[in-house]
Amino acid sequence: MPQNLSIAVFVLGAVLLLLSLVSGGFKIFGSEVPGAANRAARAVAFVIGLFLIGFALWHYNDAQKDVPKLVTASAPSPATSPAPDVGPPLGSSAPQPKSSPTGAGLNDAEARQVYGEEGTDFGVAPRNSVQQTVSSPTPTSIPGARVITTGELKNAMDAGRSFLLIDVWAVPHPVLPNAKSIPNIGMPYPPYDVATALATATGGDKSVALVFYCQGASCWESYNAALRAKNAGYANVYWYRGGVLAWIAAGYFNS
Q: Partners of 238 in the beta sheet?
């Protein structure tokens, strides 16, 4: 039975029950009010009223059982929740991709030794444009290229990795092993077309790893040259920030 109908039957039974009780007469403030029905009629009304009330309550409870209950999903407890896959923690010994022989991965954390001022942070922000004053402290990073340290460069040489080492410093100085000299390519206004000079040096192969160096951590010429190579479309560009001075500090010219 619908809930509304059960309530109506309950009200009707309550009314009949009330009438059976009061229609026999009652006293109020010491005066007696005469009843409106005889004893038999009041007994019938009393029985019918009780029946209707019981009937309504019974069907109301049944109707309540049929009402669908709202189910809310409970969150899994922390003990049973699967832990998110965030990968190995920083500094873990998880296996890393191996560098390819083509020089696409010259960086090596185990060989990352620095010398002289190579690792010094002068508080200079990296920039994505050519620096006009080339004889001044440099940043510790370069946009779109990778920094290679003295230890990593020596390790790559000893391992026979394939890359092109480019010396951009124009003044007389000791030259690193097997370096190709392209002087002034890192100056603010090179006296030649940079893209042509790079294409000639690389044979037009823009996937070859290029490593640029000049005097040291206070020389922007190699930084500028690396930016220009990146902007010319070369994919594997490295900046050897330490340059000649770090190579000397490491004692590699005598090795």
A: 146, 211
